[in-house]
UniProtKB/TrEMBL annotation:
Protein name as catalogued: S46 family peptidase
A GO term, aspect molecular function: serine-type aminopeptidase activity
Pfam family, one: Peptidase_S46
Keyword annotations from UniProtKB, A to Z: Aminopeptidase, Hydrolase, Protease, Signal
C-alpha cells in the first residue's frame, strides 16, 4: 500500500560553505514530542506540540494532491506546489500549437484560471483517529491463517472507510505504521475543483531537464500555483463556473528574512514510504532485482514514447507527463544503485541486522519471539521471489491507474 502520510524530514545545522553534519530522518508528527530536546537544540522555535497538531497553525496549511505535497499560501485558496507536481495539469491544457509546457501559463484573473483536470484533487486533513486496538482485534479474531487475517483487515478497512465517508465531501483511508504495529484512520476534505493559476515556462520550471534531475547542486524554478474551489456553500463540488475559491483555516506566510548559515530547516510533506527499516534480504532484493528491472522497463517505454513523439508532435505533448514521471523514477533508481555501491549499503545493512540479532540472542528467552519473527520474515521473503515478476507486473498496473 502506498502510504501518503504527513511526515517530516529534518535537516539541522545547514552550512552554506562546507558540508554539514545533519541530524536527518523522517518522522511522523506523533513522534515529534519524543525528540523535542534535539529539535530545540537544533534551532526549532515552535513547540513540538504545535507542529504535531496537523489541523492547527501552521500544519493545517499543508495539503496533499494525491502523490504530491502542496500548501495554502493565501486566504483565497491559492496553493503552491512543485512544477513537476502540476506537470499533468500543464500537459492536459497543452496542444502542439499552444504548448504551455514550453511557454508556461499565467492567469491574470480568476476567470482565466484553467481546470487542472477531472482527476485533480486537493486533500485537506480534517481528522486522524487511532484505531490500532480495533484493527488488531479484527485480525486476531481471524485466527492464524494469513489469508484469513488479510481478509479480516481488508473487511475492517472497508467498514471503517465507509463509516468515515458517510458525510459527503470527505475521503478516508486506513494506514498502517511500523509494519502493522499502529493503525490510523485519516479523514480528508476532498476538493475536486482544482485550477491552474501559474506555471513558469519549461526553461525555468524544468531547467536542466532530466539530465539535472536528482543532481546536486541543482538550480531550477520547480514551482507552480493552483487554486482550490468549492461550492458557494463552502463544500466540495465538481468543477463549475459558479464555484468560489476555498477559504482555508490556515495558510503559510512568506518569511521576511532570508535563510542564513546554520539555520534550522524542517520539511513537512506526504512521502510515499520509507524503506529505512527493511531487512538486509529485502534491501538486497531491491538493489539486485527490483530497481534494475523497473528502470529497464521504464527506459524501454521512454524510448517508444520518444520515437513516437518525433514522428508526431501531438504525441510528444500528450505523453509529456507520463515521460517525465518515468524519467524521474528511472533516474532516481539509477542514482540510488550507484550510491548503494559507493557506500557499501548492503554491507552496512547486513552489519546492522547482525548486531540486532546478536543483541536479541543475548537476551535469552526475552529475545526468542523477535528472533522467530525474523526467521519467518526471511522465509516469506524467499517465498515471495517465486512470484516477484507477477507481483511487479500487477503493482505497475496499480501505479499506472492511480
Amino acid at each position: 500500500m502506498r502510504s501518503n502520510l504527513l511526515a517530516f524530514s529534518v535537516v539541522a545545522s545547514l552550512g552554506l560553505v562546507q558540508v554539514a553534519h545533519a541530524a536527518e530522518g523522517m518522522w511522523v508528527p506523533q513522534q515529534l514530542p519524543e525528540i523535542a530536546g534535539p529539535l530545540k537544540q537544533a534551532g526549532l522555535k515552535l513547540s513540538p506540540e504545535q507542529i504535531s497538531n496537523l489541523t492547527g497553525d501552521p500544519m493545517g496549511a499543508v495539503v496533499a494532491l494525491g502523490g504530491c505535497t502542496a500548501s495554502f499560501v493565501s486566504p483565497q485558496g491559492l496553493v503552491v506546489t512543485n512544477h513537476h507536481c502540476a506537470y499533468g495539469a500543464i500537459q492536459l491544457n497543452s496542444t502542439a500549437e499552444k504548448n504551455l509546457i514550453k511557454d508556461g501559463f499565467n492567469a491574470p484573473t480568476l476567470k482565466d484560471e484553467l481546470s487542472a483536470g477531472p482527476n485533480a484533487r486537493v486533500f485537506v486533513l480534517d481528522q486522524i483517529t487511532d484505531v490500532t486496538d480495533q484493527a488488531k482485534a479484527a485480525i486476531a479474531a481471524a485466527g492464524k491463517n494469513p489469508l484469513a487475517r488479510t481478509r479480516a483487515l481488508d473487511a475492517f478497512d472497508k467498514a471503517q472507510t465507509a463509516a468515515c465517508e458517510a458525510d459527503a465531501g470527505f475521503r478516508c483511508r486506513l494506514y498502517s505504521f511500523s509494519g502493522g504495529n499502529t493503525y490510523r484512520l485519516f479523514r480528508n476534505m476532498e476538493i475536486k475543483d482544482v485550477r491552474l493559476v501559474y506555471a513558469p515556462p519549461g526553461s525555468v520550471g524544468k531547467f536542466g531537464g532530466d539530465i539535472d534531475n536528482w543532481m546536486w547542486p541543482r538550480h531550477t524554478g520547480d514551482f507552480s500555483f493552483y487554486r482550490a474551489y468549492v461550492g458557494k456553500d463552502g463544500k466540495p463540488a465538481a468543477f463549475s463556473a459558479d464555484n468560489v475559491p476555498y477559504q482555508p483555516k490556515h495558510f503559510l506566510k512568506f518569511a521576511d528574512q532570508p535563510l542564513g548559515a546554520d539555520d534550522f530547516v524542517m520539511v513537512a510533506g506526504y512521502p510515499g514510504r520509507t524503506n529505512r527499516y527493511a531487512l538486509a534480504g529485502e534491501f538486497n532484493e531491491t538493489a539486485s532485482w527490483t530497481y534494475p528491472t523497473i528502470a529497464r522497463h521504464y527506459n524501454a517505454v521512454l524510448k517508444m514514447i520518444d520515437e513516437a513523439g518525433k514522428a508526431d508532435p501531438d504525441v510528444k505533448v500528450k505523453y509529456a507527463a507520463t515521460a517525465a514521471s518515468m524519467n524521474n523514477v528511472a533516474k532516481n533508481y539509477a542514482g540510488q544503485l550507484e550510491g548503494f555501491k559507493r557506500i557499501d549499503a548492503a554491507g552496512q545493512k547486513q552489519a546492522e541486522e547482525a548486531a540486532v540479532l546478536a543483541w536479541l540472542k543475548k537476551r535469552g528467552a526475552a529475545g526468542k519471539p523477535a528472533l522467530a519473527a525474523h526467521a519467518q520474515l526471511v522465509q516469506h521473503l524467499d517465498t515471495s521471489k517465486t512470484t516477484r515478476e507477477r507481483d511487479l507486473f500487477v503493482s505497475q498496473f496499480n501505479s499506472t491507474s492511480a
